[in-house]
Amino acid sequence: MSVAILGAGAFGTALAVALASAGQAVTLWGRNAGTMARMRDTREAPRLPGIALPREITISAEIETVSQAQTLLLAVPMQTLSALLHDISAPLNGQRLVACCKGIDLGTGTGPSRVIAEAKPQAVPAVLTGPSFAADIARGLPTALTLACADAEIGHALQHQLSTPSLRLYRSTDVAGAELGGALKNVMAIACGACIGAGLGDSARAALMTRGFAEMTRFAVHYGAQPETLAGLSGLGDLALTCTSELSRNYRFGQALGRGESFDANVTVEGAATARAVTAIAQKRSLSLPISTAVAALVEQRATVAEVLQDLLSRPLKEE
After folding, report:
1. In the chain, pLDDT over 90 holds for what percent of residues?
2. I need a labelling partner for 163 at 20 to 30 A (CA). Which of 171, 205, 231, 255 fits?
3. 166 with 142: CB under 8 angstroms?
4. Is 120 a catalytic site residue?
């Protein structure tokens, strides 16, 4: 069964390398025709220096041709997912569309599975998420992810199609839990980065991670997710990785906020938009999300680290 990956950034390219290295034919699509031509000629990817692209990867900038594959991995930033799907004229009837992005769409306030369902209602949406860095996947280092699909039979098929000797997928039917865990952990990674950047220490970071996990679970369960999903790879696992490693863009962005430094505007920071989206939702639904609200205030420059810290520490004492 054919596989195409839409999005030739670091993560999409890494997935292509992992699948091709396991002997699977893969097509990798990117929007910039010049960049894709250079990748085809050099077998090198600008976002993954030092990684050779196997010959089993077909590189293309023709989206209508690529979109004919039975399984499409959508490895683009969350805020561009809707536009990408609308760029594809075909209805994608019965095809499997696996979102590899983590976040909540600012325009609709929904996760990637709903964006897929609304743009391509005849397709089958799924989500691939969990603790992973693109370079680790491309180098063949052991990685475990969650593959969530509401259709258990199709989820089982995707699990076997996309797993490799070094990339182990665990399947789930809890799509809401998987995608919200992946989205919300980015917000907490910004908070933890700001904590360390401001010199508040590891103990404060541990507190943020723990209370952040409680906040993630509370929000996700409100939307019908299973708490067990949040305790798995797509929630707690991804939280642990992104809140402690400088390879995480969200964590590095938070560090810059904590230090009062600028950050590269060309680097995608999914948690920034997600913080704004969940804060708006929380206000409408009277949900308590103090850490997400604090991160949104930092991102929008409505408050300083010192101010949000004071707000968090002055909250009423309560039971855990």
Report:
1. 96
2. 231
3. yes
4. no
